[in-house]
Amino acid sequence: MNKTSLRNISASLALLLTAALPSTAQTSSSEVEQLRASVKGLQEMVIKQNAQISRLEQQQGGNTRPAPVAVAPAEPVAIGLHDIGDGYIFVPGTNTKVRLNLSPRLDVIADSRNPGLNSRFAVALVPVKNNNVPGSEVGGYDSSNHTYVTGRGSNITFDAITVAGDNEITVFYNNDFYDTSNGRDLGYRINHLYARMKTRFGKFTLGKTVSPFENVDSWPATLDYSGASAKVFSRPSMLRYDTPTFGRGFSTAFAISNPDASLYSATGNDGSVRDRLPDVSANIRWESEKCGSAQLGGIVRKLAVDGPVDDDVLGWGLSLSLCPKFGENDSIQLEGTYGEGIFSHINDFFRDGDMAFNSKGELKALTYWGFVAGYTHRWSPKYRSTASYSVSSIKNISTQAEDAYHRVQYASVNFVWTVMPRFDVGIEALYGKNKVKSGSSGENVRVQMTFSYSLF
């Protein structure tokens, strides 16, 4: 007998009780007594039936399982990767997101005379009057106009971000097409290739990227791909450590890196550079999203030569950069650098200038100083301009030839229109003056129009 039948019987008995009670007023006392006995029997029966129903419910309730409920599969969530970012995709079955970014670029260039190097405004290679500078791509000094169209500034970038426990790991790759050694218009060149682990103890980086001696914030936003001549430009292979932020926006970084030094030789017979120790660089940095950044960077290196004379000398340098912001539309970039034997870490490093032998046959680290200033103004969300000036200089010694690098000045001003998100069209005017040890100089004026697009 199931629970439904039992409940129906109980209900029927209850109805009988209800119907019988009103008739008692019209019956005899003997009949009343009989009726009471019958009612009592029925009540006992109802109680027994209800008890049996309860026992059955308890027994069946213990074996009852809830009906299965369809649940939508949970979305994969990568710990620490919740902000996926533009262009990133998750690798199925992993905790990794990846992105490939393509940034095609075209520069249309017109020079007032032979620039020495067509694709970039490398003022150190501008030929001087009556003095052909070695390393020039296009010959000597002349006053005729030159034009050039290039896509060498196009970039390919790939990065992958994953997590391992509480640590975030980034692998980053970037290349452009400025390797001209093979004579092609587009020559493959790696700019960055590194792995970085971010932990609660700081960031650990290995590979080719920016050294602590360089501050990427102090680059004026020129359209010229090279940028200001005197800017610290240091991208060797390295092992780098960045501390966590402390205080109010402070951090420090340390690195050992491939030295890649250069020897100036007037004859070419002074020996070969020997990299006996890695360069050691460090910085202390302050950064504020609202106010900008400031950085003091330093480098120490051992410069050595093997050849007719084996010798070595200490190289060192300091660079102070200030990059204040003034509201949302204005920013300034300032950088001053001084040192000995550091020219290979300077943007104008198109010629040898770290060290040279003096008249006594002693190896000397050449003294260098440089200054960069830039100003950027945003006219509106779609229009902006940047003006820049830089000067860089090497203190020459008597054994250097008359055409040795001495002083370079670089100036630029531009106007950029953001036609649509990530698509810019700009025009820039540049002036450069190259002065060599003899005092001879060469000048060049360039007008450049740039079209650039980035997927992300």
UniProtKB/TrEMBL annotation:
Keyword field contains Signal: yes
Coiled coil: 32-59
Keywords, comma-separated and alphabetical: Coiled coil, Signal
Entry annotated with the keyword Signal: yes
Pfam families documented for this protein: DcaP
Signal peptide boundaries: 1-25
InterPro entries from the UniProt entry: DcaP, Porin_dom_sf
Domain of life: Bacteria
Annotated protein name in UniProt: Porin
